[in-house]
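Consider the following assembly input.
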Amino acid sequence: MSHEHFINQAISSWMSEEGPDSDIILSSRIRLARNFNEYNFPTLYAPEEAKEIIIKMEEILKKLDVNQFGRMELLKINDLQQLEKMVLVEKHLISPQLAESSPYGACLVTENEDVSIMVNEEDHIRIQCLFPGLQLTEALKAANQIDDLLESFIHFAFDEKHGYLTSCPTNVGTGLRGSVMMHLPGLILTHQINRIIPAINQLGLAVRGIYGEGSEALGNIFQISNQITLGKSEEDIVEDLHGVVNQLISQERSAREALRKTSNIQLEDRVYRSYGILANSRIIESKEAARCLSDVRLGIDMGYIQNTSKNILNELMILTQPGFLQQYAGGPLRPHERDIRRATLIRERLLLELDKR
Amino acid sequence: MNCQECNQRPATLHFTKIINGEKTEVHLCEKCAQEKGELFMLNGGSGFTFNHLLAGLLNLDTSFQQQNQDAFHQEEVLQCDHCSMTFQQFIKIGRFGCSHCYEAFKEQLVPVFKRLHGGNWAHNGKIPKRIGGGIHLRKRIEEFKNQLKDLISREEFEKAAVIRDEIRSLEKELNGSQEGGE
Ligand SMILES: [Zn+2]
Ligand SMILES: [Zn+2]
């Protein structure tokens, strides 16, 4: 296994497998922030300290029981090409911050990419578990296992009063950020989302689009995550998030049913028009692609479109990002060229579905 | 209506807090709200996802403390003796320099944590195994002792006796676990 494995293997398990409630939940992620007790935080550590941390992680990796989590590979950010970094970011394996502004950054990834450990990002260590569908509890369990394992090698910065100590005061305590990626076209089409988001914020959770900038959520994909990391147990944090997500799932489902009742033919028309655009266009911008992919996915989930796999939304949202498109083109592309590539890639992917039938 | 915290000044801030799905009515005066770290929650809790807001938030906090401090002594620089980060630098970048900063700035940090973490300021989650089970027990004993004080002040002596027995048995357990090593 080499770093090319992660670049060339376009599809991570969370994109291709279907998890619980996968008609609405694309993925669940748990992140734990940890730091070595003996080194300064990345805020102001010396290059020597950063290098020592990498060496320690390499040593730990050698000692790890490979059967427990599958094989892991350590990728150093500085060994990667610009495009390769972009691809890893687009696959959610590393953060933009690690890719762009962590000269001593590294990342450990399992073969199927459900576990990644970022090294020398904002904190020394960030354990991430990314599972398909609604599997927060499972992801927390996996993250805890990795944490326990690392803890047998590392003295983490911890004190009784504040818990796990992190660079940023927003992560202190549990260091836990749970997040769920949701597809919410029903709440958008029925204009309910603007009422719902402030209510979720009031509960100490954050809602944001993961694609697109500012308040727009490309592809109607939202990420819900906890903001409070201190004063609650890991289980309670996850349970509270779970509760809100379940509420959202049932609201999204009733919105979809309401749409079916009130505007069945209009919705079917919209879904098939979008399918038509994706299947036939020769030039497509990311915004239009995201909108159409969301419509088609909704069409699949509501039974208007059959024999097409659900994961085309997750997959194509990722594969049509600039990094991926350019990686496949074998070099940099101008925006206009990207739009042509994107259209081709989507058409080919949809044809693959037809062949399967 | 008077402030529920100090019972002296009139309550000027009224709001409902939702914690774990339970609604609580809160009535505070401006000063107590500031101290309890509620003001920030009021001014749009949604904002606190963004790190750059943190610096502003910490600044808000120190402007209050600065006034108090200046009255007593001038130019005292609060600094972490391990990594040399000053409290002013911490405010500016919104990041700690090392794990010792938490101890160095602890007086200043409680209102910050409260504001960022929905009123919470103490850890209540996982504890590394190497630090051991003692912490869990000591935490529970501490909680019970607070309850005990409460009950005694309300003259609920029967309940207090039950709690006192709980504390005794936990303390036994704690001593046992320490004798037995980790
Ligand atoms: Zn008051
Ligand atoms: Zn420090």
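Chain B touches chain A through 41 residues (CB under 8 Å). Ask yourself how this observation constrains the way the partners meet.
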